[in-house]
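pinging the channel bc i need a second pair of eyes. not urgent but kinda urgent?? the chain im working w is below, pasted from the shared doc
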Amino acid sequence: MSFLRNLLGLGPKVDVKELVSNGASIIDVRTSGEFKAGHPKNAINIPLDQISNKVSKVQSMKQPIVVCCQSGMRSGQAARILKSNGIEAYNAGSWTKLR
């Protein structure tokens, strides 16, 4: 199971709600239309297809970073991209978990 978690960018089990309550930044990597339809409080929207170009912006944000999307697939990809750039990032999976 840990192999599958790592493959999806979930990594070790972490309480993302606790991270957020302790000040982590939330990035929702869904499209702007999906984001406008509903998103976690205080989340910023950086769609997955733009995340690589926004690494410097993310590096300037309060860390750790919690990423979310609709199902956890896009946020897993985003977490891997951010981690590969030295950013402490965690995949929350679905944005509804952060409501």
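so Residues 2-98 form a domain with the Oxidized Rhodanese; domain 1 fold (CATH 3.40.250.10). and The chain has six helices and four strands. — does that match what u expected or am i reading it wrong
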